Structure formats: structure tokens, C-alpha cells
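Hey team,

Filing this mostly as a record. A colleague (T.K.) asked me to run one chain through the structure pipeline before their review meeting, and I want the input and output archived in the tracker in case anyone asks later how it was produced. No errors, nothing strange. Just documentation.

Input sequence:
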Amino acid sequence: MPIIIDGYNLLWAVQKLQGDSSISDVGLCKILGEYFRLIGDKGELIFDGTGPPDKSCFQNTSNMEIFFVGVRTDADTVIEDKISVNSAPKRLVVVSSDNRLIMAARKRKAVSVKSELFWGRVIKQLSRKRGIQEPSAKRGSLSETETDIWLNEFGF
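Output structure:
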């Protein structure tokens, strides 16, 4: 399911929940990038304004696109437009605690998730224990020399 996130709405909710304003838009993007990589889904994070002049810190995020909408519109309007033109709105998830976006999502029968609840899901997913990955060398084959040594060892 594609997920559209009201960027600053989620950031504000995270800062409020954690009682800490040290998490930034860049930090939020990195956390969400890891979340989307783990769940194997795609997301769009939409922020108001133009963002920083150097946006290179927002690159290299897995399965996620980050947009700054500029000065002529706002994130809510852009998200509403994305909801209204989506060809499969029942498969769409909209993350925001903004009543305007909740109503727009419901109108098209999209799933609406409040920012606080979504952040809880993110934290839960990221805190799950992951299985220990085997070293890649374990999957590789032996060299000819190593093969000869073992064949010799077993008398072949």
C-alpha cells in the first residue's frame, strides 16, 4: 500500500510524543527510510515550504520520495490533490492528524492513520529483533586449493 505522509505534522507529533525537539526533518527521513526498507513498501513524505537550500541530506532514502511543496501552496493541498487523483484510493494510506486530510482520505475511502499511531507502528517495526544474517562467505564455494586440502584430508 502506498503511504502518503504529512511531513511536518508527523514531525510535530514525534517531537511531542518523545518530549524532545532534537529530531529534525532529516532525522525523521532517515528513520522512515529504514522503516520503508524493512516493510518493503513505498512512501511519500510531503513537507511545507522549500526546505533547506542543500537537499542532499534527503537523498538515499529507501522506498521513499521526499517533497518540499514550495511557497505557492501547502502540503495539505498537495496531499489532497494526490488523494483525489489516485487511481486506487482504497489501497492508499494517508498519515496525518489534520482533520482536513482525514476527511479527504475518508471521502475517497482511503485509509487514514493519525500521526501518533503511525509513529507507534514505525517504532514497533524498527524495534523488532532481526535474525542474524549469515556471512556471505558461508554461501560461497571453496577455492581449488581448499578443495584439494579437504580431499587430501579425507583420503580422496
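Quick notes for T.K.: The two ends are 56 Å apart (CA to CA). The chain has a mean pLDDT of 88.
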